[in-house]
Specification:
The protein has two domains: 69 residues, Double Stranded RNA Binding Domain (2-Layer Sandwich), CATH 3.30.160; 85 residues, no CATH class. It contains six helices and eight strands; from the N terminus they run E-E-E-H-H-E-E-H-H-E-H-E-E-H. The strands form two sheets. The chain has a five-stranded mixed sheet, with helices on one face. The protein is globular and about 45 Å long. The two termini are 25 Å apart.
């Protein structure tokens, strides 16, 4: 899928999380100079780049990902261990924000945050906030530290990068 902005530079780092898991973190620079960041725990650099491009577009426009995707329809979401009767969608396996949004267009949907990592939960919350579905839940495979999440209101995808100390140590090469 095409990026939602014209990208002039991409840089991807492999990073070890505090939990020991490996993650790919991407930074893109849009043509207007706005930087966006993305990640993937399934080691698909294309998914991290796509997320970073959406983050850059939302930041450039000064809106949250939910606003960019059509509006913030909910402020908070429930986190559960099962889907109930909802259709399960794994936004990380789909590889792009657009594909995840299209797949989650059903009436009752559960977005999977496979590792229950706060970055995964934040992205699922940002996507879920814009879905027109009447019932949206975030589902985790392992124990989550919380039972609900508030949708991040700031510009971009709303991930708090400071949650992982390794992120601040990354050295980005190229422009910017």
């Amino acid at each position: 899928m095409a990026a939602p902005v014209r990208i002039t530079h991409t840089h991807v780092h492999s990073m070890r999380l505090a939990s020991g898991a490996e993650v790919l973190v991407a930074r893109v620079l849009a043509a207007d100079g706005t930087a966006g960041f993305g990640f993937t725990m399934n080691l698909d650099a294309g998914a991290a780049r796509d997320m970073a491009a959406w983050d850059a577009l939302a930041r450039a426009r000064g809106v949250s990902l939910a606003e960019l995707l059509g509006g913030r329809r909910r402020e908070a979401l429930r986190i559960a261990a099962d889907t109930g009767t909802a259709r399960l969608v794994d936004p990380f396996a789909l590889g792009s924000v657009e594909a995840a949004r299209a797949a989650a267009a059903s009436e009752s949907v559960a977005l999977l945050a496979p590792n229950a990592h706060p970055w995964e939960i934040a992205l699922c919350a940002a996507l879920a906030a814009a879905l027109p579905a009447s019932d949206v839940t975030i589902v985790v495979r392992s124990h989550a530290a919380q039972s609900s999440v508030t949708v991040p209101p700031g510009p971009g995808i709303g991930v708090d990068w400071s949650l992982e100390p390794g992120f601040a140590k990354l050295r980005w090469v190229g422009p910017g």
